[in-house]
Amino acid sequence: VQLQASGGGLVQPGGSLRLSCATSGIVFSWNTMNWYRQAPGKERDLVARISGDGSTVYADSVKGRFTISRDNAKNTVYLEMNSLKPEDTAVYYCKAALAGRLDYWGQGTQVTVSS
Fold it and tell me: Residue 51 in contact with residue 29, Cβ under 8 Å?
């Protein structure tokens, strides 16, 4: 099983980034896909979640700015991030979750929002 996150980088406040998490070794459409983030010295927190049926959940801090989506044909989940703020700076991780099985995590991609 592999989850490969990409798309992070350095962006100015107000800018945008699109993260991708390409997966292999799982039945992607069965999995609830998640994006988490962890800032230095802080816990890893849920950013957004998308179920197999396409229903979504967002952290309050990103509602209206971030959009999670999935492409089951490409086994990939995305996180479109707009109006980025310095407090969005963190390592972003993707996670695949399925009831009755351990979760799978990607390696993380750094997002830095700074002028």
Answer: no
Q: Could you report the per-residue pLDDT of 85-106, keeping only the tens digit for each?
A: 999 999 999 999 998 889 999 9
**For the residues 40-62, what does the mean pLDDT come to?**
97
Kindly state the tokens that stand for 62: 């990103």
Residues 6+ apart with CB under 8 A from 106: 3, 4, 5, 21, 93, 94, 95
Beta strands in the chain (DSSP E): 2-6, 9-11, 17-24, 32-38, 45-50, 56-58, 66-71, 76-81, 90-97, 104-105, 109-113
